[in-house]
Amino acid sequence: MFITIVAAIIIFGMLVILHEFGHLAAAKSVGIRVNQFALGMGPVIFRKQKGDTEYSIRALPLGGFVKLEGEDEDSFDDKSFNSKSIPARMMVLAAGSIMNLIFAILLIIILFFMNGFPTNEIQSVVEGNPAQLAGLRAGDEIVEIQGNEIKSWEDTVNAISKSTGDQISITIDRDGNVQTIVTDIVTDETGRRVIGIIPANEKAFFRSVTEGTKYAFMMIAIMLDFLVGIFKGQASTTDVVGPVGIFHLVGEAARMGIPYVMNFTAMISMNLAVINLLPFPALDGGRLLLLAVQGITGKKLNPEKEGFIHFIGFVILIGLMILVTFRDVERFIL
Fold it and tell me: 88 and 174: one domain?
């Protein structure tokens, strides 16, 4: 339980800091006064004034916020949010989610690099399986299967799985000596044709960058597809979890090791980025939508009315969070 609490505080704190820092840095870069930068909600337990900005830590470690001059109220200050151009304001609103997205991609790239990529060199053979019985060894590099050139582990898997006979010929390079070994093929519990070899992995930085980035955007596409499915009634809301559910999942990841915590953190960071950009009041996406409408129509919405709209959205979001929390308590605790 202690590990879970510590891991959850670190993960949530880090993601909130990154998100709010994105808003802070973007606002200051375009000359918007940031009145408050807060981590957590509720009563203030620490505050420090630096320049125009009050930095504070709140008692409840749930979220955080950045209060910009003139964002939800009238202000005639030339450093107010509404005095800046629409593109500048849009950049400030999107900056939090962009920071979370960049952080998630970096974590996934690091994980890809740590795990490495399978090669056509054999790391080990499974005891009692055809590869061992045929004489294949760790360190053998597979160069051909059934006369077809092998350049990667994917080529090896495809050649074995697509073979049709009971045996297969594998040409290997063993310490510079090329030789061909014939081995039987068996079917594992999943129905795949295998010979019982485990590939060696190699670390490749540039491949980690490209594959990690592609994987991150694939996961974002899956998240968006899931959200669309919920609105269409085609996806179950039982897969949606709130703070209690996330707390439980953090504990599960922490028990399995640091790589699992890193992967879970990346997924939460991506979820935070996607959810915040949804076009709903109180979320950054809702504010972006209103700005887009203003840019198209040329009509400026009264800041106080806009603030009220976001307040209503915030109340609805709190209500949904309470509902999900009750369901999480029943599901994960009771």
Answer: no
Its domain, for residue 191, covers 118-202
Report the candidate in 18, 6, 46 with the shortest Cα–Cα distance to residue 254: 6
User: Is there a contact between 169 and 145 (Cβ–Cβ < 8 Å)?
Assistant: yes
CA atoms within 13 A on the CB side of 309: 18
The whole-model pTM stands at: 0.82
Give CA–CA dist 225/96, Å, rounded.
Answer: 22
- Asked if 288 and 264 sit in the same domain, the reply is yes
Instruction: Give 274-322 pLDDT, tens digit per residue.
Output: 989 998 888 899 989 989 988 888 887 777 777 788 888 888 888 877 8
**Based on the domain organization, do 197 and 262 belong to the same domain?**
no
Helices (runs of H) and strands (runs of E) counted in the chain:
9, 10
Per residue in 38-51, is it b (16+ CB within 10 Å) or e — as a string?
Answer: bbbeeeeeeeeeee
Q: Are residues 160 and 68 in the same domain?
A: no
Determine contact, residues 305/48, Cβ cutoff 8 Å. no
For the question of residue 20 being annotated catalytic, the response is yes
Question: Do 86 and 233 have their domain in common?
Answer: yes
For residue 331, what are the CA distances in angstroms to 60, 153, 255? 24, 41, 20
DSSP string, 7-43: HHHHHHHHHHHHHHHHHHHHHHHTT--EEEEEEEEEE
